[in-house]
Amino acid sequence: FRKEGQIQVALKYLVKCAERNSEAMLLLGHAYKHGGWGLKWDEMVGPFWWKRSSEAGNAAAMALFSQLLRY
Question: pLDDT tens digits, residue range 12-59?
C-alpha cells in the first residue's frame, strides 16, 4: 500500500526522466491525457508529451499522435 506523498515523488522523477526518455514521455502523456497519478486531466498537455515522444522515435507514441491528427 502507498505511503502518503509517494505518487508526487514518483511523478517528480517521471517528469525528470521525460526530459530525455521517450518511454517516460509517453507515460507522462497518458497520465495527463487521462488524469492519472493524481494529475489534473489536460486535453492539451498529454498530446504534447506524445508528440515529443514520437519525435524521439517512440513507435507507440507515433501511433497515438498520428491518430490524434486524423480527427
Answer: 898 899 999 999 999 999 888 887 777 777 778 888 999 999 999 999
Listed as own residue / partner, the contacts of 19-26 with beta carbons closer than 8 Å and 24 or more positions apart are 22/52, 22/53, 22/56, 22/57, 22/58, 22/61, 23/53, 23/58, 25/49, 25/50, 25/52, 25/53, 25/56, 25/58, 25/61, 26/50, 26/53, 26/58, 26/60, 26/61, 26/64
Which pLDDT belongs to residue 1?
A: 47
